[in-house]
Amino acid sequence: MICRHFFSAHNRIIALILVSAMLLTACEMAPFKKSTVPEGYGNLGDEKGSRSNTPVCLVPSQPATATSANDLSVVDYSNASEGYVSVLYSGTSPKVKLQITGPDDVTYTYNLHRDNNDYEIFPLQSGNGDYMINVYENITEKKYSMVFSTGITVELSDEFKPFLYPNQFVTFTADSLGVKEAMELAYPCNNDLEVISQVYNYVIENISYDYDKAAVVESSYLPDIDQTFVDKKGICLDYAALMTAMLRSQNIPTKMEVGYAGTTYHAWLSAYVTDIGWINGMIEFDGADWSLMDPTLASTTQKRKLRSFLNEGDNYSVKYIY
Fold it and tell me: CA-to-CA distance for 160 and 182, rounded, in angstroms?
């Protein structure tokens, strides 16, 4: 049973489809097999692994060396080459939208906030090229008026940077509880694939689906990974944001992809592993058994039903990436 709407190889022993995600309705609870690390990638133990487990939490900044502004908004794109822009809204409208359209012509729409007059961080996930950034204030009901517009040209210093920094949807720092847990989980690991497996297993074993929250949550909801970590429960966006933050803090580029499973709007994760590439969706095969890497579904969905759904490849289509 796929959950209802809320809002989105190089190596033969890895079959892809890491569906780590945020399907947002109640699904049947059932035991789920833990992820296994494919043969040849080392064994996890209590001793320190050969891989560094020191958190790499990139910190967005606003040096104001390249900005565009008016009386209502400031866009600091000084770090556009790092894969993000910082936006500050200083007007009085209670409802404000930000739209960013990249070179792939996909338009991302976000809510802007005035909390503490802090900048909010937004990824430049469409890669190199020209971006248009627009700010809209609410006029009446669903009508908005453009109050700011600017264009920038982006040349990334590293294609993975948009998927390593925190942003409005995936907020974390070196002090985040999930980041500290990821450091502990990565301690015995010898490579990134082992870290992914460790983080995945932690999430499905420790986070429960919050059906009550899913029933009342609004479309403007943004996850708080510390709250999810403390509560040990959340909706699917919480699952996805927590796992994404944990992996990014271990310097593993991770995309939170939003799209459709059939007619249901949801999201899943893809992670990048050196010498393998982007593991899209991540279903692993260790030579004997398949194991799914989807924290929300793994903790809520019967395996047979999910397997049947995943086998229908047309069910999944990406619309947005965060």
Answer: 20
| pLDDT tens string 14-64 | 333 333 333 333 333 333 345 545 444 455 667 999 999 999 999 999 999
**Angstrom distances, CA of residue 46 to CA of 49, 88, 138, 162, 315:** 9, 46, 55, 33, 40
- What does the domain layout of the chain look like in residue ranges? 14-55+170-321, 67-163
pTM attached to this predicted model = 0.82
The DSSP symbol for 201 reads H
Which architecture characterizes domain 67-163 according to CATH?
Answer: Sandwich (2.60)
- Give alpha helix (H) positions in the chain: 177-186, 192-206, 211-216, 225-231, 236-248, 295-300, 303-310
Q: What number does CATH give the domain 14-55+170-321?
A: 3.10.620
pLDDT digit string (tens) for 70-91? 999 999 999 999 999 999 999 9
